[in-house]
Structures are given as C-alpha cells and as structure tokens.
Design goal:
ACOT13, EC 3.1.2.-, Thiol Ester Dehydrase, Chain A, single chain, 41% strand, alpha+beta, PAAI_dom, HotDog_dom_sf, 137 residues, hydrolase
Amino acid sequence: MTTPASPDYFGLNIPLMSLMGLIPDRIGPDTARTLLPWRADLTNSRGDIHGGTLMSVLDFTLSAAARGTDASLGMATIDMTTSFLSPGTSDLVIEARCLRRGASIAFCEGEIRGADGQLVAKASATFKVIKRRPGGD
C-alpha cells in the first residue's frame, strides 16, 4: 500500500494533520486559516467531531499563526485553553491570530466555526518560540 503525500502545512510536514484531513488554506504574518472537512471517523459517540480533534487542529493553526511567514521559527506549545461552545456537525473553518510574538514567547487566539458560521470552539495559547538552525532540530 502506498501512503499518499502529506500536504504542505505552511512549510511543514505534519502527518497527524494529514491523517485528520486538515487543509491548510492561508497564512499571513500573524494569521492562519485551515479547513477541516467533516468525516465520520473524526466523530465521538454522538456523531459530533471529537473534542480532541478540535483541540489538535486549533493547536496547529494557532502555532501556524504564531510562526506566520517566518519559516526560521518553530513553536512548542506551553499552554492552551479551549472552550467548546457548540458541537462540530459540519465542515469546519479554523482561524487564528498571533496577538504578540516576542523573542521567546508568542500569544495567540483562535476559533472554529461551522459551515453555517456558528462558533464551535475558541482557544487561547502560549507558545515557546524556537529559532531553527540549519541542520538542527
């Protein structure tokens, strides 16, 4: 069996996001947007997209906003707080923005909305900024 090529996640290869079917949509200096098509294998026992899936795609999209268009930066999650406001029952749009990025810490917030625009979840996160070195981690 051949494994399909993983999408380019704003310059990164992230197998988990590929497995979930997350679609990278756009990236800006302090923003990121991704899309998550609804799939039955991402749901919980009620048929809603599982909260762990929602948190994972938020974590990635918020960290992408923190990195922005600077490919020399990496991010490590320090803290993330997520509030679930309604069930994810359709395709989802995840949007994130970096509120402040210093030399070592970045602060971000984002949200997930359903196809109808209803707010599904929101999150805020703090990331450690990691300067990538050629040939390094």
